[in-house]
UniProtKB/TrEMBL annotation:
<dbReference type="InterPro" id="IPR004628">
    <property type="entry name" value="Man_deHydtase"/>
</dbReference>
<comment type="pathway">
    <text>Carbohydrate metabolism; pentose and glucuronate interconversion.</text>
</comment>
<keyword id="KW-0408">Iron</keyword>
<dbReference type="GO" id="GO:0042840">
    <property type="term" value="P:D-glucuronate catabolic process"/>
</dbReference>
<dbReference type="GO" id="GO:0008927">
    <property type="term" value="F:mannonate dehydratase activity"/>
</dbReference>
<protein>
    <recommendedName>
        <fullName>Mannonate dehydratase</fullName>
        <ecNumber>4.2.1.8</ecNumber>
    </recommendedName>
</protein>
<keyword id="KW-0464">Manganese</keyword>
<comment type="function">
    <text>Catalyzes the dehydration of D-mannonate.</text>
</comment>
<comment type="similarity">
    <text>Belongs to the mannonate dehydratase family.</text>
</comment>
<dbReference type="GO" id="GO:0030145">
    <property type="term" value="F:manganese ion binding"/>
</dbReference>
<dbReference type="InterPro" id="IPR036237">
    <property type="entry name" value="Xyl_isomerase-like_sf"/>
</dbReference>
<dbReference type="GO" id="GO:0008198">
    <property type="term" value="F:ferrous iron binding"/>
</dbReference>
<keyword id="KW-0614">Plasmid</keyword>
<dbReference type="Pfam" id="PF03786">
    <property type="entry name" value="UxuA"/>
</dbReference>
<keyword id="KW-0456">Lyase</keyword>
Length: 395
């Protein structure tokens, strides 16, 4: 298995030399500066690749192995195959990536909002901070800040009572902060920052689109783009919904084994693959993560390895340390290693320690939310330790 590290580009707080110090060898990156829906050029991809892969004297080599992500425009999610211009631009971006020899592309199909949290620096018992999704705070935002039409019908009476109490206890700064976190698009997001009125308009545009229709739109997208991926030897990997359940009344269609099975049955191309994210999938207690890794092993080309800890009734959760929480990371890695050993080295699974606690000196620095250096390095070291114990020393 190949050790990856998500790098947000030359403006990121973590430099490439610092990535080398973590032991990672494979870079996961994207052209975040390109507007969503605009086709990437080979020249732009090559420029980023040269930046990553030009190795200074005496330094270890880095390879750009995964693009995360080429954003899928909202028009494709709402219209499927009818969004021809947007799909053609996406294929052009894919071809630019392929021309540079980058073999894996990660993407997601979450409408309006990408990965979602309510707290970016929740203090945990060690004194470090973690990201958290607080169901009651989320409901308070949905009901009393966003004031989404129809939201009242989607929460229980107990939910609404608790959300009311939470909202009344929030001051203006706290309301502004949760609004910023939810609407401004978190790092690596493939959706656009929104104002509250624009947020309502986006939600209204999905009226009448249920899970079956959204799934059909994804299938139509895959039917259009997988021939190009196959022709260029690129593996497409769909990231799970995060969290893996409906938010704001929107359908989500990459949350369970059944969701992925339906997509693989509909588009059986070997280029139609999975980004196996233990943190996202692990939020649901009904997702058996080792079983999913075993079932979809040939489809897994990229893995996000992190753990979450469910709280209370499970709708609230926080990011735990990589070997804690609700993910049996040893069992997961046993399955991934078994699959990886069946492959050639060129097809080896790329994994990265996803997210991480803000800790030690990173508490005194500006960091990218979810992507501090030290917490991720701790996670990578722990994952590497499991792999060495399994006699599968990572590359």
């Amino acid at each position: 298995m190949r050790q990856g590290w998500r790098w947000f580009g030359p403006e990121a707080p973590v430099t490439l030399d610092e990535v080398r110090q973590t032991g990672a060898t494979n870079i996961v990156s994207s052209l975040h500066q390109v507007p969503i829906g605009e086709a990437w050029t080979e020249a732009a991809v090559r420029e980023r690749q040269t930046m990553i892969e030009t190795t200074p004297p005496g330094r270890s080599k880095l390879t750009w192995s995964v693009v995360e992500s080429i954003p899928i425009p909202d028009a494709v999610k709402r219209n499927g195959g009818r969004a021809k211009a947007e799909i053609e631009a996406w294929i052009a971006s894919l071809e630019a990536v392929a021309a540079c020899g980058i073999p894996i592309v990660c993407y997601n199909f979450m409408p309006v909002v990408d990965w979602t949290r309510t707290d970016l620096d929740h203090v945990i018992e060690t004194g470090a901070t973690a990201m958290r999704f607080d169901h009651e705070k989320f409901a308070a935002f949905d009901l009393f800040v966003l004031k989404r039409a129809g939201a009242e019908q989607q929460y229980s009476e107990d939910d609404k009572t608790r959300a009311t109490e939470v909202f009344k206890a929030m001051d203006e700064a706290e309301v502004a902060e949760i609004t910023r976190i939810i609407t401004s698009a978190l790092p690596g997001s493939t959706t656009e920052p929104l104002t509250i009125p624009a947020f309502r308009d986006k939600l209204a545009a999905y009226a009448g689109i249920d899970a079956n229709m959204l799934r059909q739109h994804l299938i139509e997208f895959l039917q259009a783009v997988t021939p190009a991926a196959e022709a260029h030897g690129v593996k497409l990997t769909l990231h799970p919904d995060d969290p893996p359940r409906s938010l704001f009344g929107l359908p989500r269609i990459a949350s369970t084994a059944q969701d992925y099975s339906a997509l693989f049955d509909a588009v059986p191309s070997p280029s139609n693959g999975m980004c196996y994210c233990t943190g996202s999938l692990g939020v649901r207690p009904d997702n058996d993560l080792p079983a999913m890794a075993r079932r979809f092993a040939p489809r897994i080309h990229f893995a996000h390895l992190r753990a979450t800890k469910r709280e209370g009734d499970g709708r609230t959760f926080h990011e735990s340390a990589h070997l804690e929480g609700d993910v049996d990371m040893v069992a997961v890695l046993k399955e991934l290693v078994a699959e990886d050993q069946r492959r050639s080295s060129s097809q080896s699974i790329v994994f990265r320690s996803d997210h991480g606690h803000r800790m030690l000196d990173d508490l005194n620095k500006t960091v990218t939310p979810g992507y501090p250096a030290i917490g991720r390095m701790r996670g990578l070291a722990e994952l590497r330790g499991i792999l060495c114990a399994l006699d599968a020393t990572p590359n």
